[in-house]
Specification:
The chain has about 400 residues and is of the alpha+beta class. Helices cover about 45% and strands about 20% of the residues. It has 10 helices and 16 strands.
Length: about 400
């Protein structure tokens, strides 16, 4: 059994949207309060405060702040729990020290209790989002879903979250589903991802870089023009050392946000199309390299191209789609010389530049595309892994 996440866009009215923003603000306040309490307690030499202890303290704190009673208590409790988990992960050397959530830079989001949330094919009911006194109170408390019938009804949900991306509200829930019972019967596939092409497979399939298409290039130009307009508007309305934000600037920033979302959606859709196409071939195993994306981003000549390709997102999608379909997902060591090894005779070419797009073996004379050669070598790792 695996958990499959469904993410659906919401269509709230003005009152519901205002209440959701208020809930997200209170959740952010509770997270920052819990993190500050943990930090001050540690500096004073105290032991770690569990989320149960912090919840009791926060209940007393709410008595002096009655505005916290206007939102769902579950959203506040989960924020405190999230702060404790982030604090523990730092001391386990699993993450950096958690930062306080900023009102300007943090994406508004909050949690809904799995028992109290109700979902139908067209609506979702959220606790304390709308309290209408009219006769149609039952209808006013339900938030409309943009996509009907997308989320399964009558099942138990895991970790329901409401998020705001600057333009739209989204609902994401996890639903427990069974793994595909079919046994994969295809040959193992090695995938070499890069900048010239998004992915090259060992069976010869090649998937293009979406960022090189005219469609994406035109949207990138539009984005640059909007960024320059916003910058000029800020300079014109500057008062001393302070920047003044006008209504026209807000309109331009909203247009810029829409363009950014459009670019993100195009790239993400291309990744889903590519990964689904690979899974549809029903391979027995998929092999990918563990790329050092952080190190690649330090190269100022390639950083922008690497960031646009979304390597981590591609890796993540392949991993969970293989898990859903019962396909073995194998990660090759990042130091494995897949590009330098000849797929014909196994000889290793020590000196291979990034500009060398064709692999020419000095031992057997084989001539092959560099990325295809690497993908074939990765596919052979699956055979070794299965045999072991």
């Amino acid at each position: 059994m695996v958990y499959k996440t469904y993410k659906v866009k919401l269509n709230p009215n003005n009152k519901q949207a205002s209440k959701m923003l208020q809930t997200a603000g209170c959740a952010r306040y509770a997270y920052n309060w819990a993190l500050a309490a943990e930090k001050s307690n540690y500096e004073a030499g105290g032991r770690f405060l569990s989320d149960c202890d912090l919840r009791r303290m926060f209940t007393l704190h709410k008595a002096d702040n009655p505005w916290l009673y206007e939102v769902s208590n579950d959203a506040l409790k989960q924020s405190i729990k999230d702060a404790c988990i982030a604090y523990q992960r730092f001391f386990k050397h699993q993450a950096k020290f958690p930062r306080f959530k900023s009102k300007k830079r943090t994406r508004p989001s909050f949690y809904m209790d799995t028992v109290k949330i109700e979902i139908t094919e067209t609506h979702v009911k959220l606790e304390k989002i709308a309290d209408s006194k009219k006769k149609n109170r039952a209808q006013a408390n339900w938030v409309r879903l943009v996509e009907h019938g997308r989320i399964p009804v009558g099942v138990s949900y895991a970790n329901p979250r409401i998020t705001f991306d600057g333009l739209n509200w989204w609902l994401s829930v996890g639903v427990e589903t069974s793994v595909n019972a079919k046994t994969p019967s295809g040959n193992p596939i090695g995938i070499d991802i890069g900048i010239k092409s998004l992915a090259v497979c060992s069976d010869g399939a090649e998937y293009a870089n979406i960022n090189k298409t005219n469609r994406v290039k035109e949207i990138e130009k539009q984005k640059c023009r909007l960024q320059r307009q916003v910058s000029r508007k800020y300079q014109i309305n500057k008062k001393g050392n302070a920047y003044c934000k006008t209504s026209n600037i807000s309109k331009l920033e909203k247009q810029l946000l829409k363009v950014n979302h459009r670019l993100t959606n195009i790239r993400r859709d291309h990744l889903h199309q590519t990964t689904s196409s690979i899974i549809e071939r029903n391979p027995s195993a998929v092999v990918m390299e563990d790329l050092n994306v952080t190190g690649m981003m330090k190269n100022r000549h390639l950083a922008k191209a690497v960031q646009r390709q979304c390597f981590n997102e591609f890796y993540r999608q392949m991993q969970y789609k293989c898990e859903w379909n019962g396909i073995a997902f194998i990660t090759a060591d990042r130091y494995y010389p897949s590009s330098k090894t000849c797929s014909e005779c196994g000889a290793i070419k020590k000196y291979l530049k990034l500009s060398d797009r064709t692999y020419i073996c000095s031992e057997c004379g084989m001539v092959l595309d560099r990325d295809l050669n690497a993908a074939i070598n990765l596919a052979r790792l699956a055979e070794i892994h299965i045999a072991a």
